[in-house]
């Protein structure tokens, strides 16, 4: 694990205690200018590692992004994945379940959006909405939540066993920072499209969201699908940390492109050209 990520991982079985984690933690960075070259280096490294992952074609990566409203999920995707080969990357944003979603099991809608082998998949919100949000608004009770936690642990273990590395990030912002961002969405016409009245409703349940996120992350942060709590009041810290996490994950996977099954020296291009 890199120096930038130290202390961000949720230890399996340990409560992350969001209230004690600083949302404005700079992670040792001095300024935005300090973070900019780190982000650029990470994106460059990710491009190369993504190419190797695609060439290998055996495994994939799934980045799950969760957080309170206005925590920066869209901005993170835009900043970190700009420059990454779109042919090897997929992004899916999960909204409120539709009537068709409710006609199936809750994991069905995420299952069909999983990344292909050789690709990086990004979930903007995810199956964790069906645990945390569903519990906050009383769609499910405690007993059903515990059952879903078991489902998700098994689901993510299956993905890992089948070659998909799951990495989950919680974008941690303060309540004051959220209010500032929500006001910006109202004050600036070009950001009106981002504002949803439901954000204000959810804000009233801030403590409940934190409570259930803590409970769920404690139970679902595993060695095969860990959670990381990313301080996100400063967007540039958020971007640098998540990009570093992705590079660290891909580097650890160490994807290997296939080698030629014949001796390269035995290929005679003149003959090939004559035949064609």
Automatic annotation (TrEMBL):
Keywords: Kinase, Transferase. This is Unannotated protein. The keyword Kinase applies. InterPro entries: P-loop_NTPase, Polyphosphate_phosphotransfera, PPK2-rel_1, PPK2-related. Pfam families: PPK2. The keyword Chaperone does not apply. Residues 32-255 form the Polyphosphate kinase-2-related domain. It comes from freshwater metagenome. GO terms for molecular function: polyphosphate kinase activity. One of its GO terms (biological process) is polyphosphate metabolic process.
């Amino acid at each position: 694990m890199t120096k930038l990520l130290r202390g961000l991982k949720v230890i399996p079985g340990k409560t992350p205690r969001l209230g004690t984690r600083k949302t404005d933690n700079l992670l040792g960075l001095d300024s935005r200018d300090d973070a900019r070259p780190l982000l650029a280096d990470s994106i460059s490294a990710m491009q190369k590692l993504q190419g190797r992952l695609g060439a290998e074609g055996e495994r994939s990566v799934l980045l799950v992004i969760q957080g309170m409203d206005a925590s920066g999920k869209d901005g993170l995707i835009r900043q970190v994945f700009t420059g990454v080969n779109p042919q090897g990357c997929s992004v899916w944003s999960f909204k409120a379940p539709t009537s068709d979603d409710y006609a199936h099991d809750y994991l069905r809608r995420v299952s069909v959006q999983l990344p292909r082998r050789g690709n990086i998949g990004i979930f903007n919100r995810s199956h964790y909405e069906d645990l945390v949000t569903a519990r906050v608004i009383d769609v499910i009770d405690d007993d059903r939540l515990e059952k879903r936690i078991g489902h998700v642990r098994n689901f993510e273990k299956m993905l890992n066993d089948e070659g998909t590395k799951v990495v989950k990030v919680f974008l941690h912002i303060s309540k004051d920072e959220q209010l500032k961002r929500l006001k910006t969405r109202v004050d600036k016409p070009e950001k009106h499209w981002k504002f949803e009245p439901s954000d204000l409703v959810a804000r009233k349940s801030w403590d409940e969201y934190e409570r259930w996120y803590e409970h769920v992350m404690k139970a679902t942060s595993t060695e095969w699908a860990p959670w990381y709590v990313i301080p996100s009041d400063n967007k540039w810290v958020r971007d640098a940390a998540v990009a570093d996490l992705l590079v660290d994950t891909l580097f650890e996977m160490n994807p290997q492109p296939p080698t030629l099954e014949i001796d390269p020296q035995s290929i005679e291009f003149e003959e090939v050209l004559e035949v064609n």
